[in-house]
Design a protein that fits this description.
By secondary structure, the chain is of the alpha+beta class. It has three domains: 47 residues, 2-Layer Sandwich (Alpha-Beta Plaits); 201 residues, 3-Layer(aba) Sandwich (Aspartate Aminotransferase, domain 2); 124 residues, no CATH class. Helices cover 37% and strands 19% of the residues. Strand 1 and strand 2 form a beta hairpin. The chain binds flavin-adenine dinucleotide and iron/sulfur cluster (SF4) (3 copies).
Length: 397
């Protein structure tokens, strides 16, 4: 029977809760707001399935060939703007639903909780656009995916590498009609932090949030902002340096304990496709970057390559050198996020005193940060931001 004595050994993938034949495992939030399995011992029959399925205890089979790499940009400009990078998942979703398939991904529900859900049309798949830098609640999605696969439906499932590993372990066999897509992942903050942040913003704007985008391309792809739109018509837009939610995500102070020792890293994956940010698309492809965002896509399997072929009419696609792409943009492919020395205190402060206290204690902003934020619109309009970024990248490569 699964027993989480060490939180660095559970990624919250829900595979155990989905496989339990007695339905006696529920996922419950701890003080930090991360979900962990809890067994109802009265109902448990000690079958051991929950331990067998756990991807942190038993790894899944990974591809053994060097992945092929492509830089991709979706050719629907409206949807591209809403996507985190090049909109690869939107293009893939389109290809899947056009074949009568079902697409799974992370979306906001009506309370702005991040949950895994599915869609069967291009329009409905729009909810998956954009990275939500908070752990998604998978619910009983693995069980539902299995039902879809068993009834022959082409099913595409995307998530963090640990979520894909959990799904693969749960399914216990290869399905020809399953496409899996993972992301290069720098770890996930807790849903509790996300909700404390939203509550704070809603109080400040005296209105409910109706739209959220962690990486809105306000000043182009290379300089995105957190954007919130409120029911009263007001808009909040601040860069990742200033915005507390993005700052806490990027600084590494707010991640799930397992993320600092993530066992799901590496170039070889158990997914068909892997997506990540193509910051250096210009250097990798040789074409002029339009600053609208490129996704770097790793192809691990024949199935993955077939899906890429099926997306071709919706994308601009450039094969790129795998080693160079990993060198320029793939730092998180193999590396864990560095543990922040104040990580544990951060969540204690959040629990005891709330997010305003976290801001006071852990968000150290200088006059320079605020000054850059104020002059950013001018720098963007004059083209100066793009020039500085380009010079920096040239120096880097
Ligand atoms: C928590 C997290 C950490 C990441 N860390 C890195 C990183 O360090 N380096 C890097 O290069 N890229 C990282 N990414 C990936 C990057 O943010 C983009 O998702 C990627 O470039 C694909 O962009 P796109 O425009 O092609 O996808 P989009 O069209 O924007 O599609 C977004 C995809 O991400 C999935 N998704 C969104 N939020 C979540 C979530 N909370 N949990 C699971 N799946 C989600 C959606 O289901 C969809 O499949 C991370 C993504 C997440 C969610
Ligand atoms: S040992 Fe079997 S019955 Fe008990 S919690 Fe695990 S899966 Fe459920
Ligand atoms: S199966 Fe997933 S949720 Fe269950 S204990 Fe293992 S890592 Fe945690
Ligand atoms: S860093 Fe690893 S453990 Fe954490 S969410 Fe990403 S894949 Fe899962």
């Amino acid at each position: 029977m699964i027993n989480i004595a060490d939180k660095t050994k559970c990624c919250g993938c829900t595979a155990c809760a989905n496989i339990c034949p007695k339905y006696c495992i529920s996922m419950q939030a701890d003080k930090e707001g991360f979900l962990y399995p809890k067994v109802d011992i009265e109902k448990c029959v000690n079958c051991g399935l929950c331990e067998k399925v756990c991807p942190t205890l038993h790894t899944t089979k990974k591809s053994s060939v060097e992945p092929k790499m492509y830089a991709i940009q979706f050719n629907n400009s409206k949807q591209l703007k809403e996507s985190a990078s090049g909109g690869a998942y939107s293009a893939l979703s389109k290809a899947i639903v056009n074949q009568g398939g079902m697409v799974w991904g992370a979306a906001y529900d009506e309370n702005f909780d991040v949950i895994h859900t599915y869609a069967d049309s291009d329009e409905k798949c729009k909810k998956f656009q954009g990275s939500k830098y908070v752990q998604s609640n998978l619910g009983m999605s693995f069980t539902q995916v299995k039902e879809m696969l068993d009834s022959g439906i082409l099913t595409c499932y995307s998530g963090t590498p640990c979520q894909i590993a959990g799904l693969k372990n749960f399914l216990r066999k290869d399905y020809d009609n399953l496409i899996t897509v993972d992301l290069v992942c720098a770890g996930v903050p807790s849903p509790k932090l996300w909700h404390s942040y939203l509550d704070m913003q809603q109080e400040q704007f005296n209105s409910k949030v109706k739209y959220a985008n962690f990486r809105y391309k306000t000043y182009g792809y290379q300089c995105s902002t957190m954007r919130l739109e409120f029911e009263n018509g007001k808009v909040y837009s601040q860069s990742g340096r200033i915005d507390p939610m993005m700052n806490f995500f990027v600084s590494g102070i707010a991640k799930r304990p397992v993320c600092y020792d993530c066992p799901f890293k590496g170039e070889n994956r158990n997914s068909d496709l892997t997506l990540f940010d193509g910051w250096h698309a210009e250097q990798l492809t040789g074409i002029k970057d339009n600053d609208k965002g490129f996704t770097l896509l790793m192809v691990h399997t024949f199935k993955g390559k077939k899906m890429l072929d099926g997306m071709q009419s919706y994308i601009d696609c450039y094969p790129v050198d795998t080693r160079k792409a990993l060198l320029y943009d793939g730092v998180m492919v193999n590396n864990q996020p560095k543990k922040h020395e104040k990580r544990n205190i951060f969540y204690e402060v959040l629990d005891e005193s709330g997010i305003e206290a976290c801001k006071r204690e852990f968000l150290h902003l200088t006059f320079k940060d605020y000054f850059l934020e104020i002059i950013k619109p001018v720098l963007y309009k004059s083209g100066a931001i793009r020039i500085v970024k380009r010079i920096k990248k040239r120096l880097h490569s």
